[in-house]
Amino acid sequence: VVTGEVFDYTSAIRQGRFQTGLLGLHQIENAGMAIALLDTFCQEVGRKLPANILIAQALEETRWPGRLEVVSRNPLMIL
């Protein structure tokens, strides 16, 4: 099974282990930026920070069809 990238995230207000739904090490940086922006937005507008479980679910479910998409596992074929 081909999965996304697993990473640890730590900031002043959140820490956790997350996994992206997209392949590529650069997705760790993208996901970390998305988490930081979400937390900053929530603080700025006075909203409660989403639980790590919700963020983890959203990151894992992220897909970009046709970009490093696994179309076959035997033999392994990636678009």
UniProtKB/TrEMBL annotation:
MF-aspect GO terms: ATP binding
Leader sequence segment: none
Family matches, as Gene3D superfamilies: Mur-like, catalytic domain
Organism domain of life: Bacteria
InterPro entries hit by this protein: Mur-like_cat_sf
The protein, known as: Bifunctional folylpolyglutamate synthase/dihydrofolate synthase
Species whose genome carries this gene: Streptococcus pneumoniae
